[in-house]
Amino acid sequence: MSSASKISKLSKNVIRTRSSVTAINPQPEAIHLKALDSAKPYSEIPGPKPLPILGNTWRLLPLIGQYDVSDVARLSSLFYKEYGKIVKLSGLIGRPDLLFIYDADEIEKVYRQEGPTPFRPSMPCLVKHGEPWRTFRTKVQKPILQLRTVKKYIEPIEIVTKDFINRMIEMKDEHDEMPKDFDNEIHKWSLECIGRVSLDVRLGCLDPNPTPNSEPQKIIDAAKYALRNIAILELRFPFWRYFPTTIWTKYVKNMDYFIEICMKYIDEAMERLKTKTVVDEKELSLVERILASEPDPKTAYILALDLILVGIDTISMAVCSILYQLATRPEEQEKLYRELKRILPDPDEPLDSKKLDQMVFLKAFVKEVFRVYSTVIGNGRTLQEDMVILGYRVPKGIQVVFPTLVTGSIEEYVSQAEQFIPERWMKRESDRYKIHPFASLPYGHGARMCLGRRFADLEIQVLLAKIFRSYKLEFHTSHLTIKSHLCMHQMEI
Q: Which helix (H) or strand (E) segment is 311 a member of?
């Protein structure tokens, strides 16, 4: 079976009598209808004007197009500068309109009004939403999202991270520099952590003499290709729906391979569970925790595949961005070192949740990197009913995009937005800096918040703590350019 089938108010009235005053509260539904009736039409929302037949799809094509679909962050920033706080990208052949919202108050309103099964914008090349998603989420959210469960994995993640640091020492050249493909080594660390946490297996990503065609490397390459080409498949003309284009063929091939290899490891984890004697709860993988209370193994399969596919590239590129910012900001790196030295007088001292909780500057630095330099543009929703957004009536079915990478840098919502200030996220400094709670949400909000966010945070924190407690990082080559990609979550097999 191919991946194409696998992935598949009335105003307030007051009645006065001689003895009392009684208020008739307006009904929310009536208020909603009145707001819709008085709103400006959807057609008046600003945005690039579609051409007859070609719509706006031509603007995203290579050579003749004016927008680079591989850099969605730059695209969303251009829209905001040219059109303002609400921008409609209509006339996309084969898909609904995209509505970009750059108002943190309106973003909050959309999030607050969504029901128990909010819809993310669907992607025909990888779809999962609605009630099936709600059922899946209910089954897996306890082992994934409970903080006390996540903390049980500090030790195994630290072990993997120590092995990675030893690998870094081996990779250094005579100038103490890392290899040019160091980002790929970060991907290996990320995959090794995910394998250990989700499947209780060491995949061998950190072996001293890996081969270019090793299974872990192929998993990484397949996940990279799939994630980094979704925008091209979804936003450019969907030729792939009518005949097998080159990019679609490669996409399916990579997804097929990714699923095949990952399923092999997942099946092995299932078999081990049948004869495994658990002495310590920390020995349970996430898949095992789910299977202990969920008889349908498909739930565990979906979770493991989702964590691996989304986690490899998203976490790895976030780490690359954070390491680069620390390497080019020596004062902040020194602050981090002093914090770590205070919490970990002995650099070989094992980490635990209490120590991690004290690393307030580390966490603040990561949040500031996500605000300014996130490798994920933001989040989105498919509207389940007509809504009024910034005075316009937006119909059901429109896909709204919240580019928090842009809203997180708007002065109206974040004071001194152009400056990199990690301290703005620290409680003792929070009174000095204004930041709208919905301006920067790299993991989303509410019921559709990223399932793996706690593990992503934990992996990043452990890696930074272990590296910067003992080592200093420098960057001596040309300035890096960061591109942000569309992000997807929850897959269906």
A: helix 297-327
Name the amino acid, one letter, at 394.
Answer: V
| Residue 485: strand pairing partners | 376
Residue 60 near residue 361 (C-beta atoms within 8 A) = no
Which pLDDT belongs to residue 43?
94
Q: pLDDT at position 483, please?
A: 55
Nearest to 34 by CA among 8, 2, 57, 11: 11
**Using the 8-state DSSP alphabet, how is residue 376 labeled?**
B
Nearest alpha carbon to residue 255 among 309, 210, 204 = 309
Highest mean pLDDT among 134-148, 209-223, 258-272, 401-415: 401-415
Closest CA to 379 of 458, 440, 309, 318: 440
> Which token pair is 190?
């990320």
Distances (CA, A) of 493 to 4, 251, 262, 310: 10, 16, 12, 15
Q: Is 394 in a helix, a strand, or coil?
A: strand
Q: Name residues whose C-beta falls within 8 Å of residue 477's C-beta, 6 or more positions apart in sequence.
A: none
Indicate whether 107 pLDDT > 90: yes
* Average model confidence (pLDDT) across the chain: 80
pLDDT band at 156 (very low <50, low <70, confident <90, very high): very high
Residue 437, Cβ density class (10 Å: 0-12 exposed, 13-18 middle, ≥19 buried): exposed
C-alpha–C-alpha distance, residues 323 and 467, integer Å: 10
Q: Tokens in use for 295?
A: 């008889």
Q: What is the DSSP string of 130-166?
A: SHHHHHHHHHHHHHHH-HHHHGGGHHHHHHHHHHHHH
Is the Cα torsion angle 301, 302, 307, 310 positive or negative in sign? positive
**Which residue, chain included where needed, has tokens 């002995």?**
346
Counting every residue written for the chain, the total comes to 493
- Rounded to whole angstroms, how far apart are CA atoms 69 and 1? 30
User: What per-residue string of b and e applies to 104-123 under the rule 16 or more CB within 10 Å gives b?
Assistant: bebbbbbbeebeebbbbbbb
Pick 119 or 249 by higher pLDDT: 249
d(CA 71, CA 481): 11
Cβ atoms < 10 Å from Cβ of 267: 12
pLDDT tens string 159-196: 999 999 999 999 888 888 888 889 999 999 999 998 88
| Closest-CA residue to 56 (of 95, 86, 82) | 95
pLDDT, one tens digit per residue, over 431-479 is 789 999 999 988 877 656 677 788 899 999 999 999 999 999 988 876 6
In the chain, the domains with their CATH numbers are 39-470 (1.10.630.10)
- The reported pLDDT for the residue numbered 438 is 93
Token pair listed for 380: 């989105």
How, if at all, do strands 392-394 and 98-101 pair?
Answer: unpaired
Residue 135's nearest CA partner among 7, 267, 302, 308 is 302
